[in-house]
Amino acid sequence: MRYSEHANPVITLTAGPVNCYPEVLRGLGRTVLYDYDPAFQLFYENVVGKAQKAMRLSSKPVILHGEPVLGLEAAAASLITPDDVVLNLVSGVYGKGFGYWAKRYSPHLLEIEVPYNEAIDPQAVADMLKAHPEITIVSVCHHDTPSGTINPIDEIGALVSAHGGYLIVDAVSSFAGMKTHPDDCKADIYVTGPGKCLGAPPALTILGVSERAWAKMKANKAAPRASMLSIVDWENAWSRDQPFPFTPAVAEINGLDAALDLYLNEGPEAVWARHALTAKAMRAGVVAMGLSIWAASDKIASPTTTSVRTPEGVDEKTIREAARSRYGVVFSSGRSETLGKLTRIGHMGPTAQPIYAIAALTAFGGALNAAGQKLAVGKGVEAAMAVIDADA
Ligand SMILES: *Cc1c(COP(=O)(O)O)cnc(C)c1O
C-alpha cells in the first residue's frame, strides 16, 4: 500500500467537506477578535454584506453558527406550524430527511417521491398544488448530493409562488457552484453554507429569508427563541449596532470572508463555468471508460458532483479504498439509500478544475481495474481531454 490511512491523502475529491482554498485557510488564521469589539462588529456587518452580494439578495442574509443541517432544522422549526400543510419533494436522501423534520412541526405532510436517480417534474408539483389547495409550504432540495442530481427549483418556485405558498430550499451543495440564488427560485427560506462550493470549512449556515417568511416566523409563538435553532433571534445580528444573541463562530467568519472575496473577485459566472466544465469532462470520461452515470439523464446531472453507478458485482467500498491506498485520491460514498450503489466525485470550490477530472478518472478507473474490471482508462482520459480542449 503506497498511501497509508494514517497520513493525509494527496487529493480530496469529495462532495463535502472539501479541501479549502489556501486563501480561506489564511483567512481562518486571522486574529480571533472579541465579538463585541467594534472592529469585529463592523467586520461581521461587512461579511454579511458580501454574502448578500453573492446571493444577489435585496435583504440581509442570516448566518447561523453551525453547519447547514442547523439551518435546515431551524427553518422547519421556525416556519412550520401545526396548521401548515407541507408538500415535501423527495428525489434523494436530503429531500427525504427534510420530511422527518417537517413532520415534527406539522402532522400534515404530503410528499412527491421519485426514484433517487431522477428529478422532480414541475408538472407533478403543479398537479399536486391544484389537487391540494390547502398546501401552505413546499420544501425541496436543489442538489440532492447523495444522488448527484439537480431539481428544477426555479420552475418549482414559480409554481409555489403562484399558489401563494412558502418555499424552503436546501441549496447547500449547489449555491456558488452553479447559477442559483434565493430570488431566482422565489425562496422564502434558502439554506446554504460555506462548506461545499465556496471552498470553506463546514461550520456555518447562510440563510436567505423573504419578508413574508420573517413575518410568519415572528408570528409563530412556537418558533425557537433563545435557542441554537432560533432564526428570529439573529434577524438583526448583521448590524454593528445590535448585540449578538450568543458568541458567533469568529474564526469561521474570518474564513467565510476570504471565501466570499474569492468568489466575488473571480466572478460567479467564471466559478460556475469551471464547475460545469469539470463535471462535463468527468461524465464524458466515465462513459467512454465503459461505466455509467447514476443520474437518469445528463440534463439533471449535477455540475458540482458526479455520481458513478457501481458496476454489477463490485463492492463499492473497495473502489474507494483502492483509490486512496494506490493513488492517494479520496472520493465520497453514497448515503443511506444510495450507499453501495454509487461513488461520488466532488467538483466543489478548489477541486472544480477540469484537470481534477483527469485525476479522478485515472484513480477511479485504476481502482476498478484493480478489482478485476477491464476498463479502458485511457479512452476515458481522452474523452475528458476532448471536452476540456474543446472549451479552451
Ligand atoms: C452537505 C449538505 C448539507 C449539510 O449537511 P451535512 O451534515 O454535511 O450532511 C445539507 N444539504 C445538502 C444537500 C448537502 O449536500
Strand element count: 14
Give the overall pLDDT as a whole number: 98
Helix content: 40-55%
Briefly note the structural class of the backbone: alpha/beta
Look at the structure and give the CATH class of the largest domain: Alpha Beta
**Under CATH, the topology of the largest domain is which?**
Aspartate Aminotransferase, domain 2
Q: Quickly count the domains.
A: 2
Q: CATH H level of the largest domain: which superfamily?
A: Type I PLP-dependent aspartate aminotransferase-like (Major domain)
Dominant shape: globular
Please report the number of helical segments: 12
The rounded distance between the terminal residues' Cα atoms is: 37 Å
Q: Gyration radius, to the nearest Å?
A: 21 Å
Largest sheet, in brief, is: 7 strands, mixed
The largest beta-sheet arranges its strands as 2-10-9-8-5-3-4
Order of helices and strands: EHHEHEHEHEEEHEEEHHHEHEEEHH
Q: Which molecules are bound in this entry?
A: pyridoxal-5'-phosphate
CATH architecture descriptor text of the largest domain? 3-Layer(aba) Sandwich
